[in-house]
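[#protein-structures] MJ: dropping glucose-6-phosphate 1-epimerase here for a structure pass
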Amino acid sequence: MIRVVFHVSSFDLSLAAIRKSRLWGGGVGCGLNSPSINPFALRRTEFENLIRVCGSRNVKDLHYFQQLFWMGHSAAVWDCRAATEITKDWNGIDQIVLRNPRGALARVSLHGAQVTSWRNEHGEELLFTSSKAIFKAPKAIRGGIPICFPQFGTCGSLELHGFARNRMWFIDDNPPPLPANDSIGKSFVDLLLKSSEEDMKCWPHSFEFRLRVSLTTDGDLNLISRVRNINGKPFSFSFAYHTYLLVSDISEIRIEGLETLDYLDNLLQKERFTEQGDAITFESEVNPLESLHLDRQKFSTSLIFPWQVDRVYLSSPNIIAVLDHERKRTFVMRKEGLPDVAVWNPWDKKAKSMVDMGDEEYKQMLCVDGAIFEKPVILKPGEEWTGRLQLSVVASSFCSERLGLDRDGL
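AK: finished. structure tokens for glucose-6-phosphate 1-epimerase:
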């Protein structure tokens, strides 16, 4: 690849001028089906001013700058045209592959708009997918990050977790603009789901669901959901990013950020309890309450789970840490517009009863979901809801106070 170095000395520069110059190239774009810009390098401050000028003329044009810069002084520019590509999985379903310049990767299937893979710069997989997962619509894929909409869980008349994860989505070539920082320095794809005749039979509301999945230069995975009511009357929905994290062993995992919160226990008819400890941990032992014939409900505030856990923590902070002591790394979840957090692991008995889950695979997975559960979103006609999730990995398994995490989230 030829690297062209170009420094902007005047910031009174329009996008039209760039298009007329030799810096503008044709062909396949760095988004999808959009024009591309030939690789060139600017100083960071110069680039920010350039974007500000272009953005003031047409925010949508920022889409064309999405892959240009690997941030840093005199940063090397990577080939934006190779950062996003469409391939097919083994069932012939289209999937979008996102890459960053350091080698991180994410795969997004049009089946459910589901992120099926997220790998770091060393090629290590970070999301769990069952070896028995069914990659064939309309079945849900066991693993990755299913989109649960318009229902999360069983609270409602729809199928478990709603229908969005089982539908075929479409690439959205012309989405309504998002803020510039949701595009610059990221490879991304925009997907779209609209209400169909089939959906209207079970959920009679017209909607547009737009999802942007992006991969940053640091390897963070971002998901932005936008649901718009294009119906003539209000509707309500619950939602979740049902995130399957790949872990070394469930007994080595610690969740921080949910302590002292109220939660609903889905295994106890959604009864409400309050956590009492400073973190949540798991054990791989036989449930002692079963052998002692004790009332499990009296012990439900325990923070150690030697059995299936299925809980929704309410009014949670916008940042949660999942520490994996064996691998010495921490998943950091930052969220916005998602007040609740669901925690789920099927444990051995439940796993053995699931046709799309290996008997022992529960040990290598944990679902920690940014969600809306207790108080569904109510959208009036024309209104739009936005929910954001950012997943990152820190090479440390210390407690979150030593990680210096900002509890305000995004």
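MJ: nice. The longest strand covers residues 365-379.
AK: one more thing. The helical segments are 15-20, 44-57, 197-202, 288-292, 347-352, 400-403.
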